[in-house]
Design brief:
- The chain is α/β, with parallel strands linked by helices and 116 residues long.
- The chain has one domain (8-115): Roll (2,3-Dihydroxybiphenyl 1,2-Dioxygenase, domain 1), CATH 3.10.180.
- It is 18% helix and 37% strand.
- The protein has a four-stranded mixed sheet with strand order 1-4-3-2, with helices on one face.
- Strand 6 and strand 7 form a beta hairpin.
């Protein structure tokens, strides 16, 4: 039986990844194994693997994160001056989701969605 899915995303600089996810998005570190980092917030985990030669312009890493109270999450990120993707502010989508998205320091796209 399947119980969870944990995305694995590339990172060039572990300190930059930690600063973004922990300081700006509110994740906590649950494991640091040199070139492999584990972060968690609420009921989700994201793992990161070191990829020093990654060109962010060539990175297509993407994660869709379901959430509740998306409007308050969105506002809390704006209050912290987290950059929202210019093409993805909070909006209702035709597929029945309210969504917004942002990019991490390595150009991994994080889309947050709540059912309408």
């Amino acid at each position: 039986m399947l119980t969870a899915i944990i995305p694995k995303l590339p990172m060039r600089d572990k300190n930059a990844t930690k600063a973004f996810y922990i300081d700006q998005l509110g994740f906590t570190e649950i494991g640091d194994y040199g070139d492999y980092l584990l972060l968690k917030k609420d009921n989700i985990e994201i793992h990161f693997f070191e990829f020093k030669s990654l060109n962010p312009e060539d990175n297509y890493g993407q994660v869709y994160i379901r959430t509740h109270a998306i409007a308050s999450l969105y506002q809390s990120l704006l209050d912290k001056k987290v950059s929202i993707h210019p093409n993805a502010p909070l909006q209702n989508k035709p597929w029945g989701q309210k969504e917004f998205a942002l990019l991490d320091p390595d150009n991994n796209l994080l889309t947050f969605g709540e059912s309408l």
